[in-house]
Amino acid sequence: MTNTPLNHSQHLQDQFGRQVTARLTVGAAELPYEVTERLRAARMQAIARRKRVSTQAQPALAATGGVTLGDERIGLWGRIGSALPLIALVAGLVLIHTIENDRRATELAEVDAALLTDDLPPAAYADPGFAQFLKSERE
Question: How many domains does the chain fold into?
């Protein structure tokens, strides 16, 4: 076993626990019988609860393939609540796509309307001589 900070910390915690236990044991010898019996009963109950929790945690960990926090089970509303952000994102992207397509179609319609209402016929814009005429007129 290597001496990592985690192992060192665990060792210090174990050492502290042993020291506390030793002092409590010395102090317990001076307590009345009724108090020691109540402490023993409380200790047994705590150990029994700890064993139940640890045996219940093992199957939960194995069944889920991960760590669970207590008895958290995601029900129908939890799943719906988890899916809502994804649904909102997809709906927003679809809305943006639709708005952009409408805006682009409007721009193209304006250009087409300007070309069709202009004094020149549309074929004049495709004529290479017309492009030269426009260049020479600008100069």
Answer: 1
